[in-house]
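Progress report, Aim 2. The chain analyzed during this reporting quarter is listed below.
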Amino acid sequence: MPKTVIVTGASKGIGKAIALEFAQKGYNIVVNYRGGLPVELLEEMNQLGGSAIGIKADVSKFDEAKSLIESAKEKFGSVDVLVNNAGITCDNLILRMKEEEFDKVIETNLKGAFNMIRHASPVMLKQKSGAIINISSVVGLIGNIGQVNYAASKAGLIGMTKATARELATRGITCNAVAPGFIDTDMTKVLSDTVKNKMLENIPMGHFGNMKDIAEAVYFLSESRYITGQVLNIDGGMVMN
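Predicted structure tokens for the chain:
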């Protein structure tokens, strides 16, 4: 019986790449989205060998996260992997940042992950198996100007990852985080050459990563039974602990 993965914020970008990676491995995939139904993506995943459905939900809402988990369980019978990828930015210098700009980012990036873990963990505990992967960021490790809210949310995810890993380890459930550096996405494509070159100065490998790098790492962690509570930096050497 195929395993089931839920990927939040999976309609585009890194979330989409992660969903496609699991589709290639024959998983049942639950694509969580907030905008329009990603019909073409679902068709592509089904052609790759997975069985994909889309479920619209705002994971920052406790009850909507619960409904997402319940719908996935009802459709496929299990929740084997949860990837907390949904995230937003709302950048501003701390001296100018509005309360709602801070709250909005924390609610989606951090509380959204809590909501999903809170509702997925009873299912995984009953199964006595499962893998949770939280998409953090190198910004959560080293900070970034104009991103106090985002850095706080991603650093919080790391603490949440470690605490969750300790709580669930005895029941065969792993919880890890992936911390991407500068990745070649639609957001980085629009940056000027000057900004890009400045970023590259801080990357020993001298180039941006791609979304496939992140997707492969997430899949690797989902399959590992003896790695838990860890943060895997995928950043070309930008952050070396």
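Strands lie at 4-7, 28-33, 51-56, 81-84, 130-135, 173-180, 231-234. The chain has a mean pLDDT of 95. These observations will guide the mutagenesis work planned for the next reporting period.
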